[in-house]
Write a structure and sequence with these properties.
The protein is of the alpha+beta class and 316 residues long. It contains 13 helices and seven strands. The protein starts with a helix and ends in a 6-residue tail after the last helix.
Length: 316
């Protein structure tokens, strides 16, 4: 909920003339949650409403506490059907006016800020083509139309694979149906080619390319869609955890987020969340930033995480 508040603050700071709807999808209590997952009445909820957020409830029918990433699938049911949408994870900040971006909702796409996390190719086991091909076939889709043939068959980048930190489309109801269908197939009735594969926590990222391909979309930049350096670039940052944000983000991104979080009415709410208090408002952010040269960052994120841990600067 604190992440959502920072997202809303950054949107209002970076795009004060934004005239779209900001909807915070909120899971409701039920059998799949041991506690109450709603944002409680109080300062965070009040700040979200003050910043123009609409808090929209949805029921968790398939996922819940065992797989909270499923919220981004089921939460689509809270959005107005038939209207173009962009989904963002709460651990995102807006850096420039979203109203400047010319999205083509008929060409759905998602974040390419991803690593080679899935599948894991086992010796003598199915290869990338067999694994992804089995998934596409199970969904009644053609694998060939999703391939980036600039990469060889053995390379993971040849296959449609996204980070689920943002995605967009023409109709959240249709997107919900396609995303849920793919996720439930993978979870409940996967093809034999997945027998050696770890499904969690990657389920949403395995299902997302199937949903996007089924809806006629693809990679950002394909067929005149959104450029790859707009979201996750000039206009937004998926910061994920504060130590990584300060270690890796650009100077303008850090300056924009800190400015959005600076007003007293926002600061008094956000500082109650320990990672924000220590990194945004105290000196840990500057210390983490001083450890790295943004122009020569380690190629693998794990090396950045390890150094932050050694310096006592890691926090989720």
């Amino acid at each position: 909920m604190y992440e959502a508040a920072l997202f809303a603050a950054s949107l209002r700071h970076a795009d004060p003339n934004f005239d779209g709807r900001l909807i915070v999808a909120e899971p409701q209590p039920g059998d799949l949650w041991p506690g109450d997952p709603r944002i409680p009445d109080g300062p965070v909820r009040e700040l979200l409403v003050e910043l123009g957020a609409e808090i929209a409830p949805f029921e968790s029918r398939y996922f819940g506490a065992d797989y909270p990433n499923g919220n981004k699938i089921e939460g689509l049911a809270a959005l107005p059907a038939g209207e173009p949408f962009v989904f963002f994870d709460t651990d995102t900040a807006i850096l420039a006016p979203l109203s400047e971006i010319a999205l083509d909702p008929a060409q759905p796409a998602a974040s390419m800020k991803r690593e080679n996390t899935w599948p894991t190719i086992e010796l003598y086991g199915p290869d990338h083509t067999e694994i992804w091909g089995a998934l596409y076939a199970r969904m009644g889709l053609e694998l060939a139309g999703s391939l980036d043939e600039d990469w060889p068959a053995s390379h993971w980048k040849r296959y449609l694979y996204f980070n689920a930190g943002w995605f967009f489309g023409a109709d959240p109801a249709a997107f919900h149906d396609a995303f849920l269908k793919a996720a439930l197939m993978i979870r409940d009735d996967p093809p034999d080619a997945l027998v050696c594969q770890q499904i969690y926590p990657w389920l949403d990222q395995i299902a997302l390319p199937l949903a996007i391909h089924a809806l006629g979309g693809g990679r950002p930049g394909d067929r005149g869609g959104i450029a790859t350096d707009v979201l996750d670039g000039s206009h937004s940052v998926h910061w994920r955890v504060m130590p990584l944000f300060y270690a890796t983000a650009s100077d303008p991104a850090v300056a924009t987020v800190e400015a959005a979080a600076a007003p007293n009415r926002i600061k008094k709410v956000l500082k109650e969340y320990e990672p924000f208090r220590r990194f945004l408002y105290q000196n840990r952010g500057a210390k983490a930033r001083a450890l790295f040269d943004r122009d020569t960052l380690p190629r693998r994120e794990q090396a950045i995480r390890n150094r932050l841990r050694r310096e006592g600067l890691w926090m989720r």
